Amino acid sequence: MTRNGSRVPDFVFLAHIVDITSAMHGQCCLRTFASLPFRTRFFLIPFFPIAVIGLSAMWLWSKTFLFSFYYLRDRLHQTWVVPRCGFQYFLPFATEGINKHIEQAILTADKIGVKNESLNGGGKLFVDKHPNLRVRVVHGNTLTAAVILDEIPKDATEMLTLATDRFEKVQKEAPPEFQSYLVQVTKYQAAQHCKTWIVGKWITPREQNWAPRGTHFHQFVVPPIFAFRRDCTYGDLAAMRLPEDVEGLGCCEYTMDRGVVHACHAGGIVHMLEGWTHHEVGAIDVDRIDVVWKAAMKHGLRPLSSGSTVKAN
Q1: CA–CA separation, 286 vs 160, rounded Å?
Q2: Pairing relation of β-strands 216-219 and 233-237?
Q3: φ, ψ dihedrals at 302, nearest 5°
Q4: Is the pLDDT of residue 256 over 70?
Q5: CA–CA distance from 183 to each of 51, 157, 171, 189, 264 (Å)?
Q6: Which structural domain range is residue 159 located in?
Q7: How many domains does the chain have?
């Protein structure tokens, strides 16, 4: 399918800029740097003022724009970027503007005939406001939950979930032997007894100090939490490796290797490949975690739960 001489994407992943430094991790800025996993480098320092000016201009005038693309099973996948940094999502006066950008991106995708749009967030607000959408809106959190659960060691006996409302029901899907040990999100005192932490929101070094020695932090928060505890380990972001037949990848998705995407991104891909016609928005349907996981495996996506961990220096 084409529109105005260009091919309409089958799938769109709607993302946002993480921070000012990572804004330079794009093919439009430094192609060689973009082809490698993002790390803060000294050579970026001279470009920092330019990035600040550019992002300020984007705040005032820019609309959601195409960032990258690739092909999978002869289907065009694109990443569109909302011209806002992560910290701006926490500014009360910026909420309305951000929601307008997201809403407009969804309506644009619907108008041009995109089948699936994956966004890192709830999405229910926009689906309720526009009940006649043809595009399927997918937050991808169901597959994120499945990836996190797959990473948890089978011999773990206690877990603490520090998550956003996206994971408010994930505890119910945990193995039965965990049920009596699960700890509610806000009870930090109980954290002193748990060595398996599931982190879905930014936590400070002070909050990490609640964890006992030997704790492992599983995380699905962007940017990753600061790894400062030398007596603890930190897992990679919840992510999946794309199938081997993916084509046209010219850049990396944030800190991950080329060909690896965030689990929420992968969740949207699975939704599209399966041809599901429902929206995946709001709270996670725990009954679908196994369904989505098996579908991901069937289509050749693989988790990065190989036990790789990071220790603080």
Answers
A1: 18
A2: parallel
A3: -130, 140
A4: yes
A5: 42, 12, 9, 10, 24
A6: 153-234
A7: 2
